[in-house]
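Form P-L/3: holo structure prediction, ligand cytidine-5'-monophosphate.
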Amino acid sequence: MIVTIDGPAGAGKSSIARQVADRLRFEFLDTGAMYRAVTLGALREQIDLDDTEALVEYARGTTLRWEDYRIYLNGEDVTDEIRTTAVTNAIHYLADLPAVRRQLSLQQRQIAEGRDIVTEGRDQGAEVFPDAECKIFLTASPKERARRRQQQLAQMGRHLSLDEVLEKQNQRDAEDRGRPLGALRPADDAVVIESDGMSSDEVLERALEIVEQAIEAQKVKDC
Ligand code: C5P
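OUTPUT (holo model):
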């Protein structure tokens, strides 16, 4: 069974998706890590980010592996390195390219094939897994997301004003919503969780409730 959890940056998808997977003993796939890893590779190779052909060719020549919550680029574990601001700022150059998206989407489908898995990203329910048995779109207002992100950054010793965080987040939202293929949007049959005012435990319980209902519906269908 495939469970997709999509939503904008800062909605808390990663943590909820991991916890849902843990609780249900499903596997977990962080598709953002795949986009981040290819971007890191392109930066390391100093490919001109405006040279779309070179980016597509580079992406075609890379091997990504996802194992035990870690991402490997051409065999090297890059899980920690993909979280830098340089990578975050450059992702859209690759994530905007339909050829790169098609390649990563294909890999995502291969990883999920025949598994019980929670996949997390932007386009999982609407484009990569249109037939997924359970689709969740997790979101919160821009201000709420920025506030949470600001707290997270402060815990890591980076103190930014709410306006600074909000500005960067708005930019990422616009990039994620505006791409021609793989744009951030809820699938028509996704259940939306609007998490303003909810604690992370409440969000988790709501997500589990949605998945459990989908599991029950699947059992009835299989009967
Ligand atoms: O989820 P995370 O913030 O790590 O994703 C980083 C970026 O990768 C997103 O802002 C988005 O541009 C891109 N992405 C994507 N499609 C996905 C997952 C992530 O385009 N399925």
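COMMENT: The longest strand covers residues 134-139.
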